[in-house]
Amino acid sequence: MPRRVDHEERRRAIAEALWRIACARGLDGASLRDVAAEAGISLGQLQHYFSSKDEMLVFALKYLGGLAEERIRARLLGLNGPPSPRDVLRETVMEMLPLDDASRTGNLVQIAYFVRALHDERLRGHAKEGIPALRAFFADQVRTGIERGEVDASRDADAEAMLLIALTDGLTTHLLLEACDQDETKSLLDGHLDRLFTP
Q: What range does the domain containing 149 cover?
């Protein structure tokens, strides 16, 4: 009796093949056929799950995002006691930075997607939709810090959230280019959070 195919598992395997290609050589020259070969399946099998590279890329990014959220939850659960707003921000940004293989892969796939989205209106919509949610999440942590007396009440939570996103993006670029190392990156992040969480 033939083994039943787990369709969600197959979609994840295709996404992982796409990640490997994105990390090795980017996505511009990669075709659906290339991804199918990397995943060890036929082109027809791949097209059963994804009709286009863009559809496959959107799924891969959402899958990556879900894995990152799981790792952030694990980081926070590993802390001693309930996490403070500063802890939540630090552990979230630490997971977003390319400090290990998993987060580096995620960043390389996002960069490949970003490059495509610059020239494609539909993809740009997908690329932008996560930013307001991340900014709102960061801003909520800053507001909680203000309420707890850990952040100066004169701080603009929304502006601070966007500055933290911009800092994370900048540090990501410098890490990927090896223009700064992990110790310096962590020190810069902690310094920024120390200045923010000073009432």
A: 54-196
Could you tell me the CA-to-CA distances from 123 to 21, 53, 110 in Å, in that order?
19, 11, 12
Q: What is the CATH number of the domain that holds 186?
A: 1.10.357.10
Helices (H), 53-120: 53-77, 85-96, 101-117
Give me the mean pLDDT over the 24-42 stretch. Answer: 85
Q: Is residue 112 part of a domain?
A: yes
Q: What share of the chain is helix, strand, coil (3-state, %, to 5)?
A: 75, 0, 25
Half-sphere exposure of 179 (CA within 13 A, CB side): 7
Asked whether residue 184 is domain-assigned, the answer is yes
Segment 70-94, tens digit of pLDDT: 988 998 888 888 999 999 999 999 9
Strands (E), the chain: none
